[in-house]
Amino acid sequence: MEQEIFIGYFIGTLSPQEEKTLLDWIDASDANRKEYLALRKVWDMYLLNRAAEAPSISFSQILAEYYRKLEAAKPSRPMMRIRELCRIAAIFAVAFGLGWYIHTRAQRKPEPVYHMIEVPPGQRAKLTLSDGSQVWLNAQTRFTYPAVFDKDDARCVMLDGEGLFEVAHNNRQPFRVQTANREVTALGTTFDVYAYSNSNAFETILLDGSVEIAPTRIAGQTYRLRPGNRLYYDEDARKMRIEKVNTGEYVSWKDGIYCFNDITFAEMTKRLGHYYMTRITILDSAVMNYRCTGKFRQHESITDIMNVVKSDMPFTYTYNKDLNELIINKRIRKR
Q1: Higher pLDDT, 210 or 73
Q2: Cβ neighbours of 6 (radius 10 Å)
Q3: β-pairing verdict for 134-137 and 125-128
Q4: What is the spatial order of strands in the sheet that 279-282 belongs to?
Q5: How far is CA 87 from the centre of its chain?
Q6: Which of 275, 279, 145, 141 is nearest to 197 (CA)?
C-alpha cells in the first residue's frame, strides 16, 4: 500500500473511494491489519512530537525511512516489516524523550513544560499522562497537558473537544479538566467530557467514581455526579439536566463507533459537524426534531451516515467537500 494513502487517511483527506480501498486492504489479512495498527502507533507518537519541544520529524520522513528499510530487506516478510516499523517507532520515542529531558534539565528553575495534541477529523488518539492517567481523545479535539504534573499542585489539563479520562487515584492531588466554560474535578475516576469551544453544549458522563462540575470563570453552583449519570448543559439557553444513561453508548467513540440513541436529528448533526469538521445547515425545520437511533463506524464518511438516516426519513441534501459544508434542503414526504 502506498504511503501517501496512509498519510491521507490519518489526516482525513482521502476520497470515499480511496478510504474504501484502504479499509478493504486492512481487512484482507491479519498481516495487513497488524501493519496498519503499527503505523497508527507511529502516527500517535508523531502527533505528540509535533506539539512538543523535541526534534522536528515529519510523518512522511518516518514512513520514508520505514519503506527504505523494507526495500533493503530481502525477502520482505510481513512480520519483518512490522518489527522494522516498531524499531523505527522506538528510536523516534527515544528521540522525543531525550529532547524533553535535555530541555527540562537545562533550566536552573524549570517552568512547567506543556504539550498540545490536535486530533484530525475522523480520527482519535490515546495517550498516558505522567501520573499514569489514560486519556482518549475524539476527532477535532485539542488537548493541552503538562509534561510532568507539579507534585505540590492540582493536576490540571485543558480540553477543547471530547475526551475520556481514566484518572490515576491521588487523594492529595485533584485532577481537573478545564474547558471554555466548565471545570470537571476528580480524584481517581473514569468520565467523559464533551466541550467543543464552538458549541453551546457541554456534557459530562460519569462511568466510575465521583466528579464535581463548576463554572470556570464565574461563581456558580457546583454539581456532583454519581456513576451512570450524565450532566448536560446548554450554555446559550442556560438549561441543565442530570439523567441516568447507558454510559457505554456515550463512550463507544473510543472504539471507533459513533452511537446515537433517541436524540434529535439537530443534535446528531451538531456532533457530526464537530467530528468531521463539517458545517451542517438544516433548512427544513420539519427535519430537526426527528428522533435518531443508530451506530456508525468512525471511518464512514459524513455522506454515508446521511444516506443511512434519509433511508428512514427521506430528505435531500447537498455536500461540498472542498468547503466542508453539508446542507439539508428539505424533507420528502412518504407516499
Answers
A1: 210
A2: 20
A3: antiparallel
A4: 279-282, 325-331, 315-320
A5: 26
A6: 141
Instruction: Kindly indicate the confidence band of residue 299, based on its pLDDT and cuts at 50, 70 and 90.
Output: confident
d(CA 116, CA 64): 25
Distances, alpha carbon 317 to alpha carbons 216, 287, 313, 325, in Å:
39, 12, 12, 10
| Helix axes 78-105 and 59-72, enclosed angle (nearest 10) | 140
Whether the predicted pLDDT of 98 surpasses 90: no
Q: In 10 A of CB 112, how many CB atoms?
A: 12
Q: Please tell me the distance from the alpha carbon of residue 261 to that of residue 276, in angstroms, as a whole number.
A: 19
Q: At what angle do helices 78-105 and 30-51 cross, to 10 degrees?
A: 10
Euclidean distance between CA atoms 310 and 290, whole angstroms? 11
The reply to whether the predicted model has a pTM over 0.90 is no
The CA-atom distances, in angstroms, between 212 and each of 148, 176, 224, 233, 242 are 24, 9, 4, 14, 13
- The answer to whether residues 326 and 315 touch, using CB atoms and an 8 Å cutoff, is no
User: What is the distance of C-alpha 124 from the center of its chain?
Assistant: 4
Grid coordinates belonging to 315: 430528505
For 192-234, write each residue's pLDDT tens digit.
Answer: 999 998 888 899 999 999 999 988 665 567 889 999 999 998 8
Q: Extract the C-alpha cell encoding 249.
A: 453508548
Phi, psi of 17 (to 5 degrees): -70, -40
Is the separation of the CB atoms in 157 and 235 below 8 Å?
A: no
